[in-house]
Amino acid sequence: MILIESIMKEAIEKDASDIHLINGMKPILRITRNLVELKDFDILDEAQLYDIYDYIVKGNVGKNEEYINKRRLDTSLVFKNIRLRVNCSFSDDIPVFTMRLIKDVLPAFETLGVPEVVRTMTRQPQGLILVTGKTNSGKTTTLNSLIDDINENLNKKILTLENPVEYRHKSKKSMIVQKEVGHGKDVETFIEGVKNSLREDCDILVIGEIRDKETMEAAIDMVESRTFSHWNIAYKVLCRNH
C-alpha cells in the first residue's frame, strides 16, 4: 500500500477527524481534538509530499492550475468509501495538506446538543440562520444534520453550493441537488450559484462558504426577493424566503 493510503487507513482505524501532512514531521492525526503523531511512520520529506499531491490531483489539469495560481486547492477524494475534504497549501514552497474525514452517516439532530428552537426555525416561512463557530466545532455536521432533518420530513427542493461537496445527500421526502463550486466545476463561484438559484425554483439554498461581501449581499438579496419561492439555507448561513 502506498504511503498516503497507509496514512488514511490508520486515520480511519483510529477514528481521526483530520490528517496533517507537513514537511519535516511525521504524519499527525487529530483524534478527539488532540494532535497525535503516527510514531510508526517516517518523517515526511518534500518528495513524498509531492507524491501525495500527485495522488490527490490525479493529473487533473484544472486542479493543478488552481493550486499553482492561487497557491491553495480545496478538493475531495474517496478512500475505502470514506470521503475526505482536502486542503492543499504551501509552506516554504513545499505542499502542506490538511485532510478532513467525513462520516458517511450523519448523526440525528437530537444527538447534537443543539437547542430544539434551531430546528423550529427551519420550519418558518422566511428567515436567515447563521451557522458559525471555530474549527472543529461541528458547523458542517450541524448544518448537514439540519438538511437531513428537512429532507426526512418536508417536501422541498434543496439546492447546495459547496467547495467541495462533503456529505452526499440522497433525496428522501425532499429533492436535493448538490453543486460543486470552482473553476471547471458545476458553477464557477458562490455568487454566480446564488444568482442562478433564482431560476432554479429551489425552496432551500445552502451556501457552503460566505467568503466575501458580494456573496453575503447576494444571499441577503435572495432572502428579500419576492421572486424566490420559499427558502434559503447557507453553511454559515441558513436562510428561508417566502
Tell me the total number of β-strands.
11
SSE series: HEEEHHEEEHEHEEHEHE
Would you identify the CATH H-level superfamily of the largest domain? P-loop containing nucleotide triphosphate hydrolases
CATH architecture assignment of the largest domain: 3-Layer(aba) Sandwich
Strand content: 15-25%
The low-confidence runs, each spanning 5 or more residues with pLDDT under 50, are 226-242
Shape: globular
How many structural domains in the coordinates? Answer: 2
| Category by helix and strand content | alpha+beta
Number of helices: 7
Helix content: 25-40%
Q: Tell me the CATH topology of the largest domain.
A: Rossmann fold
- For the termini, the CA-CA separation is 53 Å
Mean pLDDT: 86
Computed Rg: 19 Å
What is the strand arrangement across the widest sheet?
A: 3-2-1-6-5-4
- What profile does the largest beta sheet have? 6 strands, antiparallel
CATH class of the largest domain: Alpha Beta
Give a quick summary of the entry:
The protein has helices at residues 3-13, 46-57, 61-70, 116-121, 139-153, 190-197, 213-224; strands at 18-21, 28-31, 34-37, 73-79, 82-91, 94-102, 127-129, 157-162, 175-180, 204-207, 238-240. The protein is α+β, with helices and mostly antiparallel strands and 242 residues long. It has a 6-stranded antiparallel sheet.
Give an overview in words.
By secondary structure, the chain is an alpha+beta fold. The chain has two domains: 3-102, 2-Layer Sandwich (Beta-Lactamase), CATH 3.30.450; 109-240, Rossmann fold (3-Layer(aba) Sandwich). The protein has seven helices and eleven strands. The protein has helices at residues 3-13, 46-57, 61-70, 116-121, 139-153, 190-197, 213-224; strands at 18-21, 28-31, 34-37, 73-79, 82-91, 94-102, 127-129, 157-162, 175-180, 204-207, 238-240. Strands 3-2-1-6-5-4 form a six-stranded antiparallel β-sheet. Strand 4 and strand 5 form a beta hairpin. The longest helix is centred in the middle third of the chain and has 15 residues, at 139-153. It starts with a helix and ends with a strand.
